[in-house]
Specification:
Layout (H helix, E strand, L loop, with lengths): L1 H7 L5 E6 L3 E5 L2 E5 L6 H13 L9 E5 L2 E7 L2 E2 L2 H5 L6 H13 L13 H10 L5 H9 L4 H11 L5 E2 L8 E4 L2 E4 L6 E2 L3 H12 L5 H13 L11 H26 L5 H17 L2
Helix pairs in contact: 4-9, 5-10, 6-10, 6-11, 8-10, 10-11
């Protein structure tokens, strides 16, 4: 921890924001993120360069260093979406988030950009559950039209326009900085299916965790901004498969986390598992 504070080059209160495979620490006006020592530094470097190229959409990094053998990225600290935003009338910045995603999806990918890491997150979530996966989650996963690995391998061929996607978008991936909203966290940034960036809120909506009005604000703003991920006449034509995949991923993550923490599944987790049950039933003969 002391080394991370030193490389931040900043002074002020120290707060641990996340401590899992990665360690994220805020030091005053700077955030440092330490990756595992086996992280692919070439891909990380390529994604940081994408942040610089897209410097009006993604918060640009301040640097990349190594600390104790671990790659560490350094960022300006922004202000995340707050509980007050979430509870206030119209406070959640759905429209701003949608416009940022639409702009990202409309930018041409630079030559040699990496593949988005988003689809592979589903396979990792299922692997974390192991053989003891709840039957409804296992059945929903088996019903998906393409395994995550296959979808990822085919992405570059399927998307001839080389669409850039965030890869792991949710409300925690935007912050206020210098008076405006930015996308953050490029760990899965790359070429992919832009519908995957809309799939998490779509999965929340389909599971009853996101109010219809909020979903319509987000989707309507994305379509109004000419986002290419979905068609105006039938957005679910493109969203259905990714939303089902994200439902399975989120349910698997919720179950694995509850098991690790030794607690019952919370209400959101129960809703996601219930959605998996419906996905599996709809695919049953």
């Amino acid at each position: 921890m002391t080394d991370l504070v030193q490389v931040s080059g900043s002074e002020g209160p120290v707060h641990v924001l996340k401590d899992t495979r990665v360690l994220v620490v805020r030091v005053g006006a700077v955030v440092v993120k330490a990756y595992p020592d086996d992280a692919d530094e070439d891909e990380l470097t390529a994604r940081l360069e994408l942040c610089r190229v897209l410097g009006d959409l993604l918060l640009p990094p301040l640097g990349l260093v190594r600390v104790g053998g671990r790659p560490v990225t350094i960022w300006p600290a922004g202000d995340p979406v707050t509980p007050e935003d979430l509870s206030g009338p119209g406070g959640v910045p759905w429209e701003e988030a949608a416009r940022l995603l639409a702009a990202l999806h409309s930018r041409p990918a630079p030559s040699g950009a990496p593949l988005s890491g988003g689809p592979a997150r589903l396979a990792r979530a299922m692997a974390r559950l192991g053989a003891d996966s709840p039957p409804e989650i296992a059945a929903a996963y088996a019903s998906l039209p393409e395994p995550a690995q296959t979808r990822q391998a085919q992405t570059r061929q399927a998307h001839t326009q080389q669409t850039l996607t965030h890869g792991d978008w949710h409300l925690g991936q935007i912050v206020r900085h210098d008076g405006r909203w930015w996308l953050i966290d490029p760990d899965d940034l790359g070429i992919g299916d832009p519908a995957w960036d809309l799939a998490r809120p779509a999965a929340w909506f389909a599971s009853g965790l996101l109010e219809p009005a909020a979903w319509q604000r987000f989707l309507g703003a994305y379509v109004q901004a000419a986002g290419p991920a979905v068609s105006r006449d039938d957005p679910w034509r493109e969203l259905d498969a990714p939303a089902r995949a994200l439902t399975v991923q989120l349910a698997a993550t919720a179950v694995a986390t509850a098991r690790h923490e030794g607690r019952p599944l919370d209400a959101a987790g129960e809703a996601l598992v219930s959605s998996c049950r419906r996905i599996a039933a709809a695919d049953a003969p």
